[in-house]
Write a structure and sequence with these properties.
By secondary structure, the chain is mainly α. It is about 70% helix and about 10% strand. It contains 9 helices and 2 strands, in the order ααββααααααα. It has helices at about 5-25, 30-60, 90-110, 120-140, 140-160, 165-200, 205-210, 215-235, 245; strands at about 65-75, 80-85. It has a two-stranded antiparallel sheet with strand order 1-2. α2 packs parallel to α4 and α6 runs antiparallel to α8 (about 215-235). The radius of gyration is 19 Å and the shape is globular.
């Protein structure tokens, strides 16, 4: 199996797992059988992603970044946006960290959520969260990175409000959602300014890096500030931190 295929598989596995759990949830009649199937998929998926990440750490030498394209999403004139992945020295270690920590959390959660009424639903959200994080880290352009970014945000909202019959949880989920939109506004604006400044030379990170010196220093400073606003919202930094304590509900 080629390295490019392994890279694609690492991102697709969590989404495939979420789909399988969803299909089991709507087709299997027995709640016990649904939980057993969900548990099996949940224990296997993050371990497989961790093993693939470990393989890259041990055997892949990132002298040149590894690229893998899933499909072309938008192709209009000179605008070409593909759902493509890139693995370099930094993202290689990040996916290892994500996958190993996720595996530990998934293992713990299968015991913690045992016999919960929404066991399968909970782990659908969890797998979508993991897949979105992989897409966020491995996307080879800001647009695909933003899809992963928003996927993480949606899953955070769903998990915070998981027990949706409790008004306190819904309030906490809504608070997280709206405050994260402030951060997202900063990120989207920064991406738009990058696109306007770079023009038709391409939106891949490699292209942005090659042409970054062409951008006016004042505009670069503004873009950096807006990117930081995005990070403030997502990672609950001052002053956009107030949603995090409520999220523990």
């Amino acid at each position: 199996m080629s390295n490019a295929l392994l890279l694609q598989l690492m991102v697709l596995l969590p989404f495939i797992a979420a789909l399988l759990i969803f299909l089991g949830r709507i087709t299997l009649q027995s709640s016990v059988t649904r939980e057993q199937m969900t548990r099996l998929i949940t224990l296997i998926t993050p371990l497989l992603t961790a093993l693939i990440a470990l393989y890259f750490i041990l055997f892949f030498k990132p002298n040149q970044p590894l690229h893998a394209s899933l499909l072309t999403w938008i192709a209009v004139g000179e605008l070409d946006i593909s759902i493509s992945l890139v693995l370099d020295a930094l993202s290689m270690w990040m996916v290892l960290f994500i996958s190993v920590i996720s595996a530990l959390i998934f293992i713990y959660a299968t015991g913690y959520m045992h016999k919960d009424e929404g066991f399968a639903r909970f782990f659908i959200y969890f797998h979508l969260f993991l897949g979105s994080m992989m897409l966020l880290v491995l996307g080879d352009n800001p647009i695909i990175m933003f899809l992963g970014w928003e996927g993480v945000g949606v899953c955070s909202y769903l998990l915070v409000g998981y027990y949706f019959k409790d008004k306190k949880n819904i309030t906490a989920a809504n608070k997280a959602f709206f405050l994260n939109r402030i951060g997202d506004f900063g990120l989207v604006t920064a991406i738009a300014l990058l696109f306007i400044s770079i023009g038709s030379t391409g939106m891949q990170f490699s292209s942005l890096e090659a042409h970054i010196k062409e951008i006016d220093s004042g505009m670069l400073t503004l873009i950096a500030i807006l990117l930081f606003v995005g990070a403030m919202g997502k990672s609950a930094q001052i002053p956009l931190y107030v949603w995090l304590p409520d999220a523990m509900a």
